[in-house]
Amino acid sequence: MRNPFIFFMIIIIAFSCGESESESNKPPVDPKDGMNIKSIITPTFNADSSFQYVIDQVDFGPRVPNTPEHDSCAVYLVNKLREFGAETMVQKGTVMAYTNSALSIQNIIGRFYKHRKKRILLCAHWDSRHIADRDPINPNGPIEGANDGASGVAVLLEIGRHLMKTDPNIGVDIIFFDAEDYGTPQLTVGMSALSDMDNSWCLGSQYWAKNPPISGYKPQFGILLDMVGASNAVFPKEGFSLKYANPVVQAIWSKAQSLGYGKYFINKAVGGITDDHKYINEISGIPVVDIIHYNPAKSDFGIFHHTHNDNLSIIDKETMRVVGNVCMEIIYQGL
Ligand SMILES: [Zn+2]
Which of 89, 108, 225, 247 has a CA 20 to 30 Å removed from the CA of 126? Predict the structure, then answer.
């Protein structure tokens, strides 16, 4: 993803506490499913398990579209979702990169409790960047993407491991989007470069939104995870999330802060960051919130971003535990 448009930062912190309260008191259950929400205890998110899923992905090598490493990792992800009991499908397609090369992409979709109408969407991108354009050393080589790519997927895999074992009384779809990170090289830090002003990022989610594999798909809301595994991660309230899914943002951040994670989920709004959720919000009309590592104090992502430092050494299980626990609370207890 690329940097936010700070210049059109419009922050609306108009969150109604009353609304959140009544939301959380409402049993997030379709009565037709015949389940009783009160008996649900949120399962424990296992950070060691999620860390192993990061290792598994990185072990394939960079997951760049049109490479064997990419395709091998796709098989792994499909098998994992099936192992966890999800009805799993792969949306294959071809998209054009800014380089004018055609990319064979795979959006991987795992559906838990497919029959339920009331659903939520959890997503992350699974590809890794084809270049290290912010690294002075070997900038043309692909990055490992332990954080930028693998960490979000790993948190969702660990969540997926629990979903069939402990029924959340809601349908959950996990989608791993391809080709998020095949955008134009970033020539500036902080403010967006003019070359970024196109649609070269998020090619997999754009394809998914324009070619919906599930007709009439309308989850209540979605959560996108991106770069959720580095030490001292900071997750501000991101601009497009605030624009399209403000009540969901406020509820997630309140939940995180009530769990004691205010150090990570900060009460700071930033401009819109082009990421998969932007296209899902704008094309599909599904309110999706981005939980993304971006430090407003430095007006930048972490120093690992789009460099060869984005490897296992920067992954901190504690950050994944925090993000995993927040997501699990929302899935099992509602917003
Ligand atoms: Zn990236």
Answer: 247
* CA 164 – ligand 1 centroid, Å: 31
What percent of the chain shows pLDDT beyond 70?
85
Mean pLDDT value of segment 131-159: 97
CA distance 234 to 253: 12
3-state secondary structure of 5: coil
Please tell me the distance from the alpha carbon of residue 290 to that of residue 4, in angstroms, as a whole number.
13
Measured between alpha carbons, how far is 132 from 304 in angstroms, rounded to an integer?
A: 10
Distance, in Å, from the CA atom of 200 to the CA atom of 268, rounded to the nearest integer, reads 28
pLDDT value of residue 12: 36
Look up the pTM and report it. 0.88
Averaged confidence pLDDT in the chain: 89
Domains and CATH numbers, the chain: 6-333 (3.40.630.10)
Q: How far is the CA of 244 from the centre of ligand 1 (A)?
A: 22
**Residues with Cβ within 8 Å of residue 78, at least 6 apart in sequence:** 88, 90, 108
Cα of 46 to ligand 1 centre, how many Å? 25
How many Å lie between the centroid of ligand 1 and the Cα of residue 202? Answer: 10
Rounded Cα distance, 170 and 222, in Å: 13
Condensed to tens digits (0 to 9), the pLDDT of residues 5-62 reads: 443 443 333 333 333 333 333 444 444 454 444 578 999 999 999 999 999 999 999 9
Angle at 124 between CA 118 and CA 233, to 5 degrees: 115
Which CA distances in Å does 218 have to 235, 281, 288, 330? Answer: 26, 11, 11, 18
CA of 215 to the centre of ligand 1 (A): 29
d(CA 181, ligand 1 centre) in Å: 5
125 CA → ligand 1 middle, Å: 9
Q: How far is the CA of 228 from the centre of ligand 1 (A)?
A: 12
Q: Collapsing DSSP states into helix, strand and coil, what is residue 101?
A: coil
What is the arithmetic mean of pLDDT over 261-273? 97
For residue 58, how far is its CA from the centre of ligand 1 (angstroms)? 15
pLDDT band at 142, cuts 50/70/90? Answer: very high
